Each structure stands twice: as C-alpha cells, then as structure tokens.
Amino acid sequence: MLLHEVKEPFDDEDYIYELKLDGIRCVAYIEPKSVSLQNKRFKELTPIYPELSDICKCVKKRVILDGELVVLTNGKPDFFALQRRSLMTDSFRISLAAKKNPVQFAAYDILYCDGKDLTDMPLMERKKILSENVKEGFNLSISRYVSTTGVAFFELAKEENLEGIVAKKKDGLYHIGKRTHDWIKIKVMQDEDLLVLGYQPDEDGKVKDLILGYYDNKGKLKCRGKVYLGVSKAEQRIIAEFAKKNTVKKQWFDKYKNVVWLKPQLVGTAHFMHETESGGMRQPIWKGLRDDK
C-alpha cells in the first residue's frame, strides 16, 4: 500500500497517527520456523539482515507483516547507518555489523494470518489481530500510535528531528499497490537560503541542475549539493542571463563535472528533509530565488 503526501498536519478523530520511521519499507513473510523479508522491489533481504532470522519466534501462526527496517542510533532511526548495512555483500562483515548495529523490524500492519487474507478488514481490526498474534522481541517491535491529535504529534516529531508522521484512517482497508488518502504522510522539512554557485546544463545548453553552497564561519565556500526539482523556466532564464556576465573559471567544487560556475551572488531557498552525512540535502526541492539577499 502506498502513501499520499500532504504538507500540513491535521487533527481528525477518524485517523490514527504513527511516526514515519526513516528506514526501508519491508514485507515480512513469517512462519513459526522461517522468515522471508522483501523490499518494495521484491528483493530478498533476509541474508543481508541475519539478526532478523529469529523474529519467527514471535509468532505461532503464519503471518505476513508490513513494516519498516530501521537502525537506531541514540534511540532514533538512522537511515545512513541502515544504508551502509544494505550495501554490504561480504558475509563476515554482515555478521559483525549485525551485532554492532542490529536492524529492527517495526511492524505496523498485518496482511495475512493463519490462512486468512486480512486486507479487506478495517485498519483497527487489523491492528487488534497484529497485537494478538505477534509478540515483540528478537529485534521485532510493533508500531505505537495516537488518535486524533495529529498536529501536536507532528510538532513533537519536528522537535525531536524525526522524519515525520503518517495519518491512517481507522476504517481504511489495505489497498495493495494503490495510493489513497487512507494513508497520508506528512514529512518534517526545512528551508535554507543558499548561494547558486553554478549549474549543469542539459543537452541543449539550458540551465538544469543548480549547484548550491554557503559560506562557513571561516568564510570558506562549502557545497550543499544540487537540486533540479522546482526550478521554473522563468528562473532558468534569469540564471542563464546572469551567467552571461558572471561566470568564473574557478571550479568551486571538484565533485561535479560539466558545470557553468558562477560568481557567488545569486541567493535562493532550498526545501529539504535534512542534512546528509556528507553535508548535502536529502530530497531537495527548489523554492525560488530571493531578490532581498
């Protein structure tokens, strides 16, 4: 089941609210003596996360669970730690990482139990069946939720620097492969004013990806990454016009190729989830140029 996205949180007594965990979506096929984990592309994940092989001890019947794989750092989901785990291929390194940074499976829905398809049942009935048939332990937990108070819950997620929340309709069914308003995600995003330091042109030579940066507290230019979503044609023309008289030969950052580098004068705002480990932006969107900076 897919999620619809909105920008603002809301209160509604017809919905429950869960944390949006910053991890990898996963469906777990569990029998009393075996486990199979698959991501959204149906890739088999079980060998990558051997520490989850014992979650079969949490059930006494065959079940299919929908949930999220997460690695916790200081009690909070750490996507980059999980990403490092997901890229490992060496079995010895995987076994060491499984002990040092174990992956957790957070279950928030149950699709099948003991021979019965549950997808046509209302969400709260599925939640009840989940809690009655799956025990926590062995790196498996069951997602908690609150009712009605979505705005306050979102503000708490924002305060704790978490990814966001998900609103789920209490009587909603499980729509396999469909995106509906029964599940709504609201992400915690942030804005930052940044310098337009260059752009990568498209095959016709027009402005495409913007290279963004900022001055650190020592006055040195630092890279914040690049963005292409949200750059309007009007702003592409403004940047191209600016470039006619304000290009520089100096390459501000070595990591990018085929760049028209600009004098650090244009300022605009980027909208993104949070800073990556390397100082970049996660899921950035361009909001626009600023003429007041």
Beta-strand fraction estimate = 35-45%
Name the structural class: alpha+beta
| Main pleated sheet | 7 strands, mixed
Helix fraction? 10-25%
Indicate the overall shape.
elongated
The number of E-state strands comes to 18
Radius of gyration in whole Å, from Cα? 23 Å
What distance separates the N and C termini? 43 Å
Mean pLDDT: 94
List unreliable stretches of 5+ residues. none
Helical segment tally?
5
SSE succession: EEEEEEHHEEHEEHEEEEEHEEE
Please describe what this structure looks like.
The protein is an alpha+beta fold. It is built from five helices and 18 strands. The protein has helices at 79-86, 91-100, 123-133, 150-159, 233-246, and strands spanning 2-5, 12-19, 24-31, 34-38, 63-73, 76-77, 103-113, 116-117, 140-142, 146-148, 164-169, 179-187, 190-201, 207-215, 221-227, 260-261, 267-272, 285-290. Strands 3, 4, 5, 6, 7, 8 and 9 form a seven-stranded mixed sheet that branches. Strands 13, 14, 15, 16, 17 and 18 form a six-stranded antiparallel sheet that branches. A five-stranded mixed sheet has the order 1-12-11-2-10. A hairpin with a 5-residue loop joins strand 13 (190-201) and strand 14 (207-215). The two termini are 43 Å apart. The mean pLDDT is 94.
